[in-house]
Amino acid sequence: MKYDKNKALIASVVPGLPEPQRGKVRDLYDLGDKLLLVSTDRLSAFDVVMPNGIPDKGRVLNSISVFWFELLSEYSNHLITADVDQYPESLQGVKEDLRGRSMLVKKVTIIPFECIVRGYLTGSGWKEYQQRGTVNDQPLRAGYQNGSKLDQVLFTPSTKADQGEHDMPVSAATINAALGEDVARKLAELSIACYTKAADYAAQRGIIIADTKFEFGENSAGELILADEVLTPDSSRFWPQESYRVGKNPPSLDKQFVRDWLDSIHFNHQPPAPELPDYVVEKTREKYIEAYEKLTGRAFG
Question: How far apart, in whole angstroms, are the C-alpha atoms of residue 9 and residue 13?
């Protein structure tokens, strides 16, 4: 395993297995009939991977995803197990390195679109609304402010860009043409259903899920399967209800602290990224752990 100076896991290594497919945050190992997904402590912002990581971030992401997969178990997902004691014999020698930050998952064919769901108007959606009165070319009524709760939850898909590239919004016509109207409709319905159930639960824990993005795959039978990470601080905007005010973005329990710091130093959103200072690393770690503890009601560690 490769760690940085703050003991954040930057890259996983599993002896006896081929080099994994490395995404922005997760390392994916092909085990033949299944996959091993390892959540590292890497962090990406503006689709650029930072040179140093956030200690414990991978464990937080993995644990939150497992929590949501269980809560949303009425919808098919790719999780087989996150219990390292049930992993194949070939992984038992490194199970303590994998404990808490990995899961065995089913093989699926990933749908090549990010399924973004918005319950509140913020971020890129707010910027587009200010310019054109739309979000992903969907017209909205006048009168919304930054951070307003939307009258209706929106499905606003985007491209799934390669590392270093930026995801781009896609219209309903584009996703219909690429996947067929039936699959596109099911994706929208599943995404909105998962978001709505999760948002209702999070509200009981004092957290607003402003928006999130899901990924889905198809199994050999053509069934849509919820995959990758689910409703984590990397894929969602979590706002504490106590600090929510319409008209501004409250301090969020995710990587917004990193984005704000990068903007303060005028980072151009292109690699290479600057190294994050220790205080940004520690503050971000605190926010990830707070999100986990508030959502699950469990102490982290």
Answer: 10
**With a threshold of 0.85, does the pTM exceed it?**
yes
Rounded distance between C-alpha atoms, residue 291 and residue 64, angstroms:
9
What CA–CA distance (Å, rounded) separates 209 from 116? 12
Residue with tokens 């092909």: 30
144 vs 127: CA distance, rounded Å: 12
**Contact criterion met (CB below 8 Å) for 177 and 184:** no
Element (H or E) spanning 182, and its range?
Answer: helix 181-204
Give the other-Cβ count within 10 Å of 188's Cβ: 18
Domains and CATH numbers, the chain: 2-105 (3.30.200.20), 109-254 (3.30.470.20)
Structure confidence at residue 161 as a pLDDT band (50, 70, 90)? low
Give CA–CA dist 232/240, Å, rounded: 15
- Nearest 5°: the CA angle 42, 48, 49 is 20
DSSP-derived letter for residue 162 is P
Residue 241 DSSP one-character state? G
Closest of 68, 3, 2 to residue 231, by C-alpha: 68
Please name which of 233, 232, 250 lies closest in space to residue 241, comparing C-alpha atoms.
250
The better pLDDT of the pair 301, 287 is held by 287
Contact 232, 214 (CB under 8 A): no
**pLDDT tens column, 112-139:** 999 999 999 998 999 999 999 999 999 9
Check if the beta carbon of residue 71 is closer than 8 Å to that of residue 199. Answer: no
238 pLDDT more than 70: yes
